[in-house]
Specification:
Distance between the termini: 47 Å
CATH topology of the largest domain: Rossmann fold
Number of domains: 2
Helix content: 25-40%
CATH superfamily of the largest domain: Vaccinia Virus protein VP39
Radius of gyration: 21 Å
Largest sheet: 7 strands, mixed
Number of strands: 17
Number of helices: 13
Length: 410
């Protein structure tokens, strides 16, 4: 396998999570007795550009298909984050009814709806038909395709050149990241800007966030590496923010390299210096990640086995992709966790891939009254704790596993 950016032969393993089913391949009851497909989940670090990456074992068009079950609008804290972004970016760049905003991976219209409220023209690009259908119902014009140079050229022919291209948690999802960035370069207006948000590799390494590794995420990104990828395609970073979403993310701002009207903010050099000081440009930075992950595995299994021995009931909340990575690598099945609650009806009455834990609605939790509720999407644990604070009525506690096992009273 060669690096998907610089084509260097990959030899340095970041972590080997062995095999796992695709993280959003939920099962219906009739599938439980059928063979389940597992794919290698080995992650490499490029010794030249330090892009951390998996191979494309499961093709992107198989993952992001009409059965895709991730809808962005089910997290209230995420919606608040997006509304705040729309207010900020609109004020900063004076977008108005004459502008065009294009979002790549627009999902169910969770973000573009806020531009639409301001009467700013929008266009969504979303490859999954079922999530795109929800956006279209909201009145958001949506192209149901994968983004790259080919689609960019098609949109240019239709006179659809945007003032803003944005993408939240999509840059890590594309197998051909060079074609993706080249497409944005082609599509963007000469004076336009790009913003992208993605989980920060620095946080992943330092906080052992291995559960964010799954087949949908082809790349794991530092600012150091992303800056190289954008620059190689004629795009220049002019600002960057460290934000709290998804356990610690970056929001990058880019422009055409030839556009000198937008000044480069000090934050760009500051973050590069911070990452270099941490060692992101040295293989040593990535070398003991596996030992940290294995400690989490041992601690979680010890906790679950001890509760089983004590006759306690353990449930989980949030049938998230990251939870499936955690459970499958740790070898947890439905004998140790009774059920998982999720607010998304598309996941309810199904079963988690690999572990076969049933996904239920919140009323099931209230009726079952488990002793512990493991919060699988720990990145929104505050929102979930607030939503489920009533579990204190039967003396239950919350649990998070990453970066270490922690029992939290409601």
């Amino acid at each position: 396998m060669n690096c998907r950016f610089c084509n260097t032969t990959l030899k340095d393993v970041f972590i080997d999570l062995i095999n796992a089913p695709a993280s959003n391949s939920f099962l219906v009851h009739d599938q439980l007795n059928e063979p389940e497909t597992y794919y290698p989940l080995k992650v490499y670090t490029c010794s030249k550009c330090f892009l951390v990456q998996v191979d494309e074992y499961k093709k992107s068009d198989e993952i992001f298909n009409s059965e895709y079950v991730y809808f962005s609008s089910f997290s209230t804290s995420w919606l608040a984050h997006c509304k705040n972004y729309v207010d900020q970016i609109t004020d900063r760049f004076n977008f108005n009814e004459q502008s065009l905003v294009v979002e790549i991976a627009s999902n169910d219209g969770y973000l573009l709806q806020y531009f639409k409220e301001k009467e700013i023209p929008v266009l969504g690009i979303e490859p999954t038909k079922n999530t795109a259908a929800v956006a279209i119902q909201k009145g958001i014009d949506t192209v149901i395709e994968f983004f790259g140079v080919r689609l960019a050229e098609s949109l240019i022919a239709e006179q659809k050149k945007p003032d803003l291209i944005l993408g939240n948690n999509v840059l890590a999802h594309v197998p051909d990241i060079v074609d993706f960035v080249a497409g944005m370069k082609k599509l963007l207006k000469p004076a336009g800007v790009i913003t992208m948000e993605f989980p920060h590799l620095l946080q992943l390494v330092e906080n052992a966030q291995f559960d964010t590794i799954y087949h949908e995420h082809f790349s794991y990104l530092s600012f150091h590496t992303v800056k190289q990828i954008f620059e190689s395609n004629g795009l220049q970073m002019f600002d960057v923010e460290e934000i709290l979403t998804h356990g610690g993310s970056l929001r990058i701002y880019a422009k055409h390299a030839e556009n000198e009207a937008i000044p480069i903010v000090d934050s760009v050099a500051q973050l590069i210096n911070k990452e270099i000081a941490k060692g992101v440009d040295k293989l040593d930075f990535y070398s003991n990640f596996t030992s940290k992950v294995n400690q989490i595995k041992v601690d979680l299994l010890e906790f679950l086995v001890n509760q089983k021995k004590a006759g306690k009931k353990v449930a989980a909340y949030g049938a998230a992709a990251k939870g499936n990575t955690l459970l499958n690598y740790c070898g947890v099945k439905n004998d140790l966790i009774d059920f998982v609650v999720d607010a998304n009806p598309a996941k309810q009455n199904k079963f988690l891939p690999g572990s076969h834990i049933p996904v239920v609605n919140e009323q099931y939790l209230k009726d079952a009254k488990p002793d512990f509720v493991i919060i699988l999407p720990w990145n929104i644990k505050n929102e979930i704790q607030q939503q489920l604070k009533y579990i204190k009525d039967w003396n239950a506690n919350f649990v998070v596993a990453i970066p270490a096992i922690e029992i939290i009273a409601p």
